Amino acid sequence: MMEDVNSATWKTLRxxxxxxxxxxxxxxxxNLRTAQRWEGRNDPPAFAAEWxxxxxxxxxxxxxVIVEGARQQDGPVILRRYRTSAQAQAAGExxxxxxxxxxxxxxxxxxxxxxxxxxxxxx
Length: 123
Prior knowledge:
With 123 residues, the protein is mainly alpha-helical. The protein is 59% helix and 8% strand. It has a two-stranded parallel sheet with strand order 1-2. Helix 4 (46-71) crosses helix 6. The chain is globular.
């Protein structure tokens, strides 16, 4: 768990996770302006920091599974991403399309960091 989530860390995590401030506000039941303030003037409260850290850890778990699976196969890995949220939902993906795209990008970087030949293609 991260020691401190200041406003700069908060915004970096939100953007890296592919989330909008509106998605944050909706998920946490706060006003959009409140969520936006956490990216500038005010550090996020502990409950919000714990929430976003949980999502960050979940991305990490999913990436670990992808990397481990890639180690088991021969040849290049093709990560799939969706063009629309409807396609993602139809395929059983719980994440909104923007968040799934962020996860795919982070997974691609992790695979390449492990020396695994990987690319991304559309579903």
